[in-house]
Design brief:
Length: 210
Amino acid sequence: MKSYEKLLLENKAWALEKVQEDPDFFRRLANLQTPEFLWIGCSDSRVPANEITGTQPGEIFVHRNVANMVVHTDLNLLTVLDYAVTHLKVQHIIVCGHYGCGGVKAAMTHHNMGIINKWLRNIKDVYRFHRELVDAVTDEEAKTDLMVELNVREQVMNLAKTSIIQKAWKSDNRPNLHGWVYGLKDGIIKPVCEMPARTPLDDIYEYDDL
Ligand code: ZN
């Protein structure tokens, strides 16, 4: 059997198991999607949103990219964000990074990675904002882990800077924003920051006429 054929076989077994547990499972999900959470995570194959949070299909709306970035020119991210906030009306948005993130590590080097440079440059900016703090750490692994945490904080801030979030904060008093970091070594998620709805921002980022 080819490797990808095994995936299709596993899928059949999974679907059967779900129906045996709950005969209405797929019928219910096919008719309605009302997730409470938007997850913005890293594409890393070791950080699957549903599995590490024990959630089922239908519970989390998911966007993943390299190093869980919120880039304001990323049409893909903005579309997911607007749909989740404005239409699905999610209550919480979780930006979840992970220790040992390859994207963050690569951004801290001078390697020329072609088109990937343009994405990683956003992480280099995070380093530039927090250079003194990061440079005070000498251990390479600890330095990456600190950068992972700072990056998550900055991406949560980037969410709050969007008119999409500010509008929902003003009209609905939601969503709450959360920054988390997952540990590849122990499987535990550490919360690192939180921005409840209507948290005041640096004034320059705030929009009127929302
Ligand atoms: Zn990663």
